[in-house]
Write a structure and sequence with these properties.
The chain has 357 residues and is α/β, with parallel strands linked by helices. Helix content is 40%, strand content 17%. The protein has helices spanning 16-34, 46-53, 59-65, 90-97, 160-176, 193-204, 218-227, 239-252, 291-307, 311-328, 344-356, and strands at 5-10, 38-42, 70-73, 102-108, 121-127, 144-148, 151-154, 180-185, 212-217, 234-237, 262-264, 270-272. The structure holds adenosine-5'-triphosphate and magnesium ion. GO terms for molecular function: isocitrate dehydrogenase (NAD+) activity; magnesium ion binding; NAD binding.
Length: 357
Amino acid sequence: MTQALKIGILNGDDIGHEIVPASVAIAKAAAEVHGVAIDWKPLPIGAKALETHGHTLPPETMETLRTLDGWILGPIGHRAYPKAPNAINPHPILRKQFNLFANVRPTRSYPDIGCLHDNVDLVIVRENNEGFQPDRNMLVGNAEFRPNDEVTLSMRVITRTGSRNVARAAFELARQRRKHLTYVHKDTVFKLGCGMFVEECKKLAPEYPDVLLDDVIVDTMAMRLVRDPQSFDVVVTTNMFGDILSDLAAGLVGGLGMAPGLCIGDGGVAMAQATHGSAPDIAGKGIANPYAMIESTRMMFEWLGHSRNNPRAVKMAQAMSKATTAALGDANVRTGDIRGKGNTATFTQAILQHLKG
Ligand code: ATP
Ligand code: MG
C-alpha cells in the first residue's frame, strides 16, 4: 500500500492565514475524491509563533519538518518582525537546511482576468540559495558591507554546484514540457559570475539532446517577456534575475495573485510557496486571491506524486487544476485583482464545488 504523504501546514503571516487554509481545504477535498492518504501537520511559524513559542521558526517546527514529504508555506511578513534574535526571517534557513536550490515559478494566462497576453505558458526556474542573496555560510561576514560611509559593497556568490543544480532541475522540467530551455544571464559584463553559470548550463546540454537550448541576456529578456512571452517554455536564471523576471512575468498574467511557486532540491522534499509576499495592506479583509497558493499546493502534490510513485496524488493534482481553472472562468466568484466580483471565500467555495461535482 502507498504510504500516507506527510504534509506540513505553515500559515505564515497576514493573508497567509486566509489563503493557506483555503489551499488546504481544496487539497483535502481533492485527496478525498482520489483516495490519497495524507497526514496533515499544522506547524507554528512567523509572527504568531513568536507570540506562542517565542520564536518565528520554533525548533519543534524544524524538527517536524525533517520528518515530512513536503509542506505549504504561507507568505512571511518578516519586515514587520521586531528586531530580536528570535524574530528571524525563516526563508533562508528553510531553503538552505533542506537544500531547496530551485524555485519553480510558472506563468500561465487565462481568459478574461486581465492578462496582457493570451497563450502564455512558461516557467521560470530561479536559483534559490546564492547570487546576491547568498547563504551566510558562503561568506565571511555579510553579503553587503561598507568599507567607509561613502561606499557600499554587495557581493554576489555564484558556484559551479549551485549553477549545475538549478540548470539540471530546469533541463528535467523542460524535458517534461515543450523541450525548450532558455538560460538568462549577462556574461557580457559579469564575465566570471554569469560566465560560470553559463558554462554549467552548456556543460549539461549533451545529456539532454532532446531539449532545445538557447540563451538571452537579462535586459533583452525583460523586453522579450513583455513583447513575446509565448516564445518561452522553461527559463533558468540566477537568484536576483529570477526574482525580478518572475514578478514581471506575473504582471503579464494578472499580477502577484496569479504567481505560484514550488521550491525543490535534492533533499527529496518540496515546499509550496507562492511568489507574492504577505500583503499586509489587504490582510484580514477576505479579498486576497488564493490562486497562487492553491496552485503552489497543487504543484507540490504533482511533484510528490511523481517522486513518491503515487499515481493517485498525480490524479489529485490534475483534479485541482481542472477545478481551479473552471472557477477562474467565473467572474462572479473570482477575486477583484483578476477582474472578479468575488472574494477569497467565494473563489475557494467554487473550486470545492467543482471538485465535488
Ligand atoms: P515581499 O518582499 O515579501 O515579496 P512585497 O513588498 O513584494 O513583499 P507583497 O506582499 O507581495 O509585497 O504585495 C505587493 C502588492 O500585491 C500589494 O499591494 C498586495 O496587496 C498585492 N498582493 C500580493 N499578493 C496578493 C494576493 N494573493 N491577492 C491579491 N493581492 C495581492
Ligand atoms: Mg516581492
